[in-house]
């Protein structure tokens, strides 16, 4: 049987790739805690509005992400998946060094440039890592390995939040170290990738190097029985050569590609516009508003990251058992319910410790349901809805939309919260109801279907 299970070389390759996603989680979660210390640094050295500058530091990350995505897919197609991941690691090392030395050299510009470069690094990772992982993993484990990307994000986020508490690096002296620590995953990734294999699919279908592809595949599968898998790749290649290469413009023009593209885009929007980033970027603020003390709010924030991590673990076995569609619907339904309960709790917590606790509990459950499906499925779904000819373009459009929505939420949550007060989650609730309905009516199940079978659905 060529559908081999996990082997040492496969786990090594996947681990090397997902370090990029760990970086993404770390840099999303890490900026929450040191806010006041970074603002102190800005106020001590510059006469500018530190709130505005801090917003720039937070959101420039997403601008970098928007640049990193298309760049990664271009390099991955031209020079290979592995080379794209190596470039990604290099951006991470440089960005982390810039952030780490920004205080010593009293340079706000270095801090902003560092965040921008680390944004490019994370944008690269969100495109290159899932592509590489889905191409080295055996078909029946693709869903489970796809979830490993999300596990790495959760793990990085918890790490960033824990290191940011006051007793560790959450201080005036500690924050440059906190941000500079991002050098570690990137440096380790860079070294590991030097010994990781290229994607066998890329070798076979793009480089036309069948001998090398077989060699790599035998090593990854730990067996010489790889004929079925090579044949599947050739079949897909044959089908693809009859299909031409598609650009982003084609995806919009051709109906059998536009439908899955719209589905993929809505899945990505459901991940960001369901309000999760409001919770991730500003969880401490939300918990303080719900009546917790500053210190308890920071600790409760670690609960948010931990919940994501735990749910990513829980959803790994479910992904291929229950399927993407079921998990996505379950996740969006739960998020809708708990965003409504959070709003009720925000109204009743004053002088009411019980409701304060419930507000935190509902927030954590809302995050838990996000972890069930919406946290990982959008990153997997696009590569499962498109054949080889259109996959790269589709994945990069999805990632671009995801980063843009991330940017919008990061930028607007504080003004939104000022304007709407306790109703701040209502716009998200309305959007979640829409996303649930859309998924219910439009998303096909991709579990245990080959890519040909899925693309055939949209040609009918």
UniProtKB/TrEMBL annotation:
InterPro entries: GLUT, MFS_dom, MFS_sugar_transport-like, MFS_trans_sf, Sugar/inositol_transpt, Sugar_transporter_CS
TM segment ranges: 12-33, 53-76, 83-102, 108-127, 148-169, 175-196, 261-282, 302-319, 326-349, 355-381, 393-414, 420-441
Keyword Transmembrane carried by entry: yes
A GO BP annotation: fructose import across plasma membrane
Subcellular location: Cell membrane
One MF term in the entry's GO annotations: fructose transmembrane transporter activity
Membrane topology field: Multi-pass membrane protein
The keyword Thylakoid is annotated on this UniProt entry: no
Domain spans labelled Major facilitator superfamily (MFS) profile: 13-447
Keywords linked to the UniProt accession: Cell membrane, Glycoprotein, Membrane, Transmembrane, Transmembrane helix, Transport
Location, primary (coarse class): membrane
SUPFAM superfamilies, per database record: MFS general substrate transporter
Pfam families cross-referenced by the UniProt entry: Sugar_tr
GO CC annotation: plasma membrane
Protein family according to the UniProt entry: Belongs to the major facilitator superfamily. Sugar transporter (TC 2.A.1.1) family.
Entries under PANTHER family matching the protein: GLUCOSE TRANSPORTER TYPE 1 (PTHR23503:SF128), SOLUTE CARRIER FAMILY 2 (PTHR23503)
Name the record gives this protein: Major facilitator superfamily (MFS) profile domain-containing protein
Species the sequence originates in: Euphydryas editha
């Amino acid at each position: 049987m060529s559908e081999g299970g996990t082997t040492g070389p496969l786990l090594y390759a996947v681990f090397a790739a997902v370090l990029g996603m760990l970086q993404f989680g770390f840099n999303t979660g890490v900026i929450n805690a040191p806010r006041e210390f970074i603002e102190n640094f800005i106020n001590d050295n510059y006469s500018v509005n530190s709130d505005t500058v801090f917003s720039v530091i937070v959101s420039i990350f997403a601008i970098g992400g928007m640049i990193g995505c298309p760049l990664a897919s271009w390099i991955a197609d031209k020079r290979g998946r592995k080379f794209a991941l190596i470039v990604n690691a290099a951006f991470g090392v440089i960005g982390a060094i810039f952030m780490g030395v920004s205080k010593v050299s009293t340079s706000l510009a270095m801090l902003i440039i560092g965040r921008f470069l680390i944004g490019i690094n994370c944008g690269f990772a969100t495109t290159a890592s899932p592509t590489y992982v889905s191409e080295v993993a055996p078909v029946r484990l693709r869903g489970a390995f796809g979830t490993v990307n999300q596990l790495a994000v959760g793990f990085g986020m918890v790490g960033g939040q824990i290191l940011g508490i006051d007793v560790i690096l959450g201080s005036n002296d500690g924050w440059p170290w906190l941000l500079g620590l991002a050098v570690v995953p990137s440096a380790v990734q860079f070294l590991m990738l030097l010994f990781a294999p290229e994607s066998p699919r890329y070798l076979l279908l793009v480089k036309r190097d069948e001998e090398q592809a077989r060699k790599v595949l035998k090593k990854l599968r730990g067996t010489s029985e790889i004929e079925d898998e090579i044949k599947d790749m050739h079949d897909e290649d044959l089908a693809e050569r009859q299909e031409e290469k598609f650009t982003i413009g084609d995806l919009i023009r051709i109906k059998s590609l536009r439908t899955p593209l719209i589905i993929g885009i809505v899945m990505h929007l459901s991940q960001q516009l369901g309000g999760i980033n409001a919770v991730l970027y500003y969880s401490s603020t939300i918990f303080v508003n719900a009546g917790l003390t500053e210190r308890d709010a920071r600790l409760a924030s670690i609960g948010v990251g931990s919940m994501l991590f735990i749910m990513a673990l829980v959803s790994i076995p479910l992904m291929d058992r229950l399927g993407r569609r079921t998990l996505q619907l379950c996740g969006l339904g739960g998020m809708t319910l708990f965003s409504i309960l959070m709003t009720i709790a925000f109204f009743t917590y004053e002088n009411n410790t019980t409701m304060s606790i419930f507000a935190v509990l509902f927030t954590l459950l809302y995050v838990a349901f996000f972890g069930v499906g919406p946290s990982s499925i959008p990153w997997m779904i696009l590569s499962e809805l498109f054949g080889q000819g259109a996959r790269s373009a589709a994945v990069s459009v999805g990632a671009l939309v995801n980063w843009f929505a991330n940017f919008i939420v990061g930028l607007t949550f504080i003004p939104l919260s000022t304007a709407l007060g306790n109703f701040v989650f209502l716009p998200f609730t309305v959007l979640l109801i829409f996303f649930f309905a859309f998924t219910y009516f439009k998303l096909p199940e991709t579990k245990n279907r080959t890519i040909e079978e899925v693309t055939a659905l949209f040609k009918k």
